[in-house]
Structures are given as structure tokens and as C-alpha cells.
Amino acid sequence: MKVLLLQDVYKLGHAGDIKKVADGYGRNYLIPQKFAVLATPSAIKQIDSIKKQADSIRSQLNTEMQSLSEKISNSWIAFPCKAGETGKLYGSITTQMIADAISAKIGATIDKRQIDAQPIRTLGEHKVSVRLTVDVIPSFTVITHREGEKPVVEETTEA
């Protein structure tokens, strides 16, 4: 099924793109959520206006999220955990826990679906990315350490 995207869809494309998708994905998700319409000749005539509108919205969002991105990329979060002798955690640090902690630290709401990471199950430093918009994806450090110990924060200097 060919669809014309009306909005940016993560891992699929930008607004105004014509994409070939599975029938069920288009019929059950993209079209009912108003993310896309069928790529008919009349819909294809509207590509230019859709792209212009989406570009202006995208640039406005990117400028708004830039200051938030700077706050996130300059931060780190430490989680005290119980762990075995090999450094494997008893349990895991989930994306919900990471989202709650970073939201409290920077003072803005971050949803767990914006966090690009698997659950953390080992001690140490882990790089985690936050998808604020399609183009703005800052990353920060999550440090897991044993309960009762101080977290070891390595200051990284980037060139």
C-alpha cells in the first residue's frame, strides 16, 4: 500500500513523503491516526503544501527544543542498585525510571517512549539518547553503582 505521510513518523519518513507500507500498518495505524492518507493522484497534488507546512513546524519545534537539548546533553543520572559479584543488577533500570529521573533533573516532562535505550542490567556508565524531535536527539550518561558506594563520574571532554 502506498501512503502519503501527513506528519513526520519516526523510523518511516517526513511529512510529504510517499512510502510503501504494509497494508495492515497503513490501514490500522497510519490512516486512523491521521499520520497518512492513501497516495491517490489528488493527494499527490498536495505534496508541496504539506512539505512546506511540515518544514515550518519542524524548524519551530527544533528551535524550541534546542535549549532543552543542551540541558539534557550536559547532565548525568546516578542510580544506586543492588548487584551481584559479577556486576549484574538484581532487577533493571527501566526507561520509565530514566524518564522520571531526567524529568526531575531538568524540570521538563520526558515520556518513556522518547528514551532510546534497553533496560540497563549491569553496573557502570551507559549512554542513553532522548528523542525530542526527529532531528534533535541529545544523549546523556546513566551511571549505575552499588548501594552504599559513591558513583564514579568521569568528566568527558569532547573536541
Structure description:
There is one protein chain. The chain is built from four helices and nine strands; from the N terminus they run E-E-H-E-H-H-E-E-H-E-E-E-E. The chain has 159 residues and is α+β, with helices and mostly antiparallel strands. The chain folds into two domains: 2-45, Ribosomal protein L9, N-terminal domain (Ribosomal Protein L9, domain 1), CATH 3.40.5; 67-146, Ribosomal Protein L9, domain 2. A four-stranded mixed β-sheet has the order 4-9-8-6. The model has no long low-confidence stretch (mean pLDDT 89).
SSE layout:
Layout: E1 2-5, E2 18-20, H1 23-30, E3 36-38, H2 41-44, H3 47-73, E4 76-81, E5 88-93, H4 95-106, E6 115-116, E7 120-122, E8 124-130, E9 139-146
Parallel strand pairs: 4-9
Antiparallel strand pairs: 1-2, 1-3, 5-7, 6-8, 8-9
Any idea of the CATH class of the largest domain? Alpha Beta
Strand order of the largest sheet: 4-9-8-6
Radius of gyration (CA) equals 20 Å
CATH architecture of the largest domain: Roll
Task: Please tell me what the overall shape is.
Answer: elongated
CATH superfamily name of the largest domain? Ribosomal protein L9, C-terminal domain
In the predicted model, the low-confidence regions spanning at least 5 consecutive residues are none
User: Count of DSSP E strands?
Assistant: 9
Average pLDDT value?
89
**Which secondary-structure class do the elements indicate?**
alpha+beta
Share of helical residues:
25-40%
What's the number of helices? Answer: 4
In CATH, the topology of the largest domain is named Ribosomal Protein L9, domain 2
Largest sheet: 4 strands, mixed
Order of helices and strands: EEHEHHEEHEEEE
What share of residues are in beta strands?
A: 25-35%
Number of domains: 2
Terminal residue distance: 46 Å
